[in-house]
């Protein structure tokens, strides 16, 4: 109103359109702020839901922390038709630290933290791959799920995440099982 040209005033219908436009923009800004607030609250709600998991052990394909003492529980699932299965253990550099034959039946198995020669490996993060064979030929390879203790739940811009012992970050959707720690 104060920026009008007094010699050429704005039409009242145009003035009403401008007021309606400004009102619509203001309402859209308020709606966006409300949606952001609701989104943040929903993220906290999701984190509150998984916060109860802290202290439990989660099964996922994430690398597992070996403390140098306690065995790591693995959950390999050899390919159907395999007559041999091997768990390949790799350190954080990707170097093979151990290769161990396991039963071809699915189920859990405890890795005792020893290399192929039977010597104890140092504490650290290790990843596990399963190699299924038939007649000495590899028919399938894949990641092995491991159990890791959940030490923290965090909210991030991408949603809640779980921090496992050793610092590995896992999304709640990547967890396939939980058990008491």
UniProtKB/TrEMBL annotation:
Superkingdom classification of source: Bacteria
Physiological role: Required for flagellar hook formation. May act as a scaffolding protein.
Keywords: Bacterial flagellum biogenesis, Cell projection, Cilium, Flagellum
Coiled-coil portions: none
Any Gene Ontology biological process: bacterial-type flagellum organization
Family listed: Belongs to the FlgD family.
Protein name: Basal-body rod modification protein FlgD
Matches recorded under InterPro entries: FlgD (IPR005648), FlgD/Vpr_Ig-like (IPR025965)
Domain FlgD/Vpr Ig-like: 65-135
Pfam families: FlgD, FlgD_ig
């Amino acid at each position: 109103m104060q920026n009008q040209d007094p010699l050429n005033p704005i039409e009242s219908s145009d003035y009403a359109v401008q007021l309606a436009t400004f009102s619509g923009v203001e309402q859209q800004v308020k709606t966006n702020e409300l949606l952001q607030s609701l989104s943040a609250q929903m993220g906290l709600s999701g984190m509150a839901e998984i916060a109860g998991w802290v202290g439990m052990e989660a099964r996922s394909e994430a690398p597992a922390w070996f403390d140098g003492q306690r065995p790591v529980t693995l959950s390999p699932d050899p390919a159907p038709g395999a007559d041999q299965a091997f768990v390949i253990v790799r350190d954080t550099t990707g170097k093979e630290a151990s290769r161990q034959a396991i039963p071809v039946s699915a189920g859990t198995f405890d890795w005792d933290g020893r290399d192929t020669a039977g010597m104890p490996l140092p504490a650290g993060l290790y990843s596990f791959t399963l190699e299924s064979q038939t007649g000495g030929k590899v028919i399938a390879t894949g990641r092995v799920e491991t159990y890791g203790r959940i030490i923290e739940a965090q909210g991030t811009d991408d949603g809640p995440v779980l921090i496992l012992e050793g610092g590995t970050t896992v999304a709640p959707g990547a967890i396939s099982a939980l058990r008491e720690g």
